[in-house]
Specification:
Elements (H helix, E strand, L loop, with lengths): L2 H22 L10 E8 L5 E7 L2 E8 L4 E7 L15 E6 L4 E5 L13 E3 L5 E8 L1 H6 L2
Parallel strand pairs: 1-8
Antiparallel strand pairs: 1-4, 2-3, 2-5, 5-6, 7-8
Length: about 140
Amino acid sequence: MNRNHKYLLTLFSTFVFTSTLIFSCNKNDEITGIVALEEYVNATGHEMQIIRYMRGQSDKSFSIARNDTLRVESPLDAGSDSTGSIFRADSAKVIFDDGKSFFVNDTTVAIPNFLNSKRTISASGKIHYYRYTFTELDYESAE
């Protein structure tokens, strides 16, 4: 093998190695790919609105018609302020169509607290389900 062949072989090997490194280092926008799926079922017989609070400030509201379900999907690893998620709120207020309402925060234990809904994880571990059903008891507890 002459000198030119060695030089070309070295140059080609360097190119292949560098290309392999570059293409194997893909940027991935998702940290984990885990998704939170929230479902809030309105079984109260009344239209209702949920106002989400972060750091004491209302920042988003959701309406749920009677006998309807609100579904919210968000990346589980996203910051709490970057999604429309309800379960990440530090507090929330529920207002029914006749003006009755109740307020909960993430530490409320006196009444059923939808901010602390139980989580079910899919078999793959990639989907975390949160489900809460608002019932007549929630409506009757409102003032």
